[in-house]
Amino acid sequence: MHTKPVKIYKSTISTVIYVLFFSAGIVAISNFNNDAPSWIMVLALGGMAVACVNQMIYYIRSRHERIVITEQLLIISQCVKQTKNGDWAPVKNVKLQWRDINYIKAQWERPTSKSIRKNVLVSAGKKDVYMIDPDIFDVFFLEKKLKKYHQQYGSANRK
Questions:
Q1: What is the pTM of this model?
Q2: Sign (positive/negative) of CA torsion 125, 131, 135, 141?
Q3: Most buried by CB count within 10 Å: which residue of 58, 81, 145, 146?
């Protein structure tokens, strides 16, 4: 059985980019001139800072997360699993055989007209559903990439 990784998605790069992006906002505040527009900008950025700091802490905590693709397995270091009552519980080091995966699809986190965030759902076995937060890996293309690997390795490994 060949278990050498084919691809590894790491969270480190996206974490660093996110932290740098919001650090740029702090630099913008350094050009404070003590006039009305500067105060408005400081108040607006201060309000956003709470949400940004919360997200930065989440990304920094997730900096060692990864998704490993092998010819036999999809390995997810951190995700959530749907419980019997419909809640989501954190799980670590999930190893799924490609042949056991039923589907991979994206789902809007909070469906609104302004939604841009989709979580990736992986259904395996009879009733197991796992949800991956793609933000720390690849917010735009993770679903498409995982589907490609599922099609490639899942059909090849079916008995």
A1: 0.67
A2: positive
A3: 146
